[in-house]
Description:
Layout: E1 13-16, E2 18-24, E3 30-32, H1 40-48, H2 57-62, H3 64-73, E4 79-83, H4 90-97, E5 101-105, E6 120-126, H5 135-145, E7 146-155, E8 178-179, H6 182-192, E9 196-200, E10 203-207
Parallel strand pairs: 4-5, 4-6, 6-7
Antiparallel strand pairs: 1-2, 2-3, 3-8, 7-10, 9-10
InterPro entries: SAM-dependent_MTases_sf
GO molecular function: methyltransferase activity
Protein name: 2-polyprenyl-3-methyl-5-hydroxy-6-metoxy-1, 4-benzoquinolmethylase
Amino acid sequence: MKSMNCPLCKHHGKPFCTEKFFICGNCSGIYKNRKNYISTDAEINRYKEHNNNVNDVRYQKFVSPITDYVLKKFTPDKSGLDFGSGTAPVISKVLQDNGYAVNQFDPFFSNKTELLNEKYDYIVSCEVIEHFHNPDAEFELLHKMLNPDGALICMTHLYDKNTDFKNWYYKNDPTHVFIYHRQTIKYIADYYGFRNMKINSRLVVLMS
């Protein structure tokens, strides 16, 4: 496949660095060639390999940019969703231990689709958005689920001009199919109607 339109903004992309990836000339997203996607079973097995533990202090520290943001910006009476909660929903664990009510949704490990019809004051998504096969539909859904003055709080590793993409560990994960640039986040904020965005290293916050 010599060309493939961007799965986020549908604009034309061109090959980037290796035959496995394209880069979008519109939103600056970097996306994997679909012929290099792994099977659903292989993807699930890959996630099971992570072997995370919600009581692991190191794991709790890793997600602390998200949990600290929620604890600072939202009170326990606000509703939350852990989107892509995985095999070990550590964010939910930390917040629930602080008296917060958080639901968990994961298409493979907690596929409670009824939760996607509800509204939330905040949605957390840690190391998830780079796995989106259809980011256009996913971000439309996430924005739709937020209450006014809500926030989508994500963690991912953004690409920038200083990234040595060819040798970058992040693109080597076979389940990572869409890599974001700061400009990509701006596109998402503008296109889906988020009123503001904040980026602090791996932490990305989009406010409704």
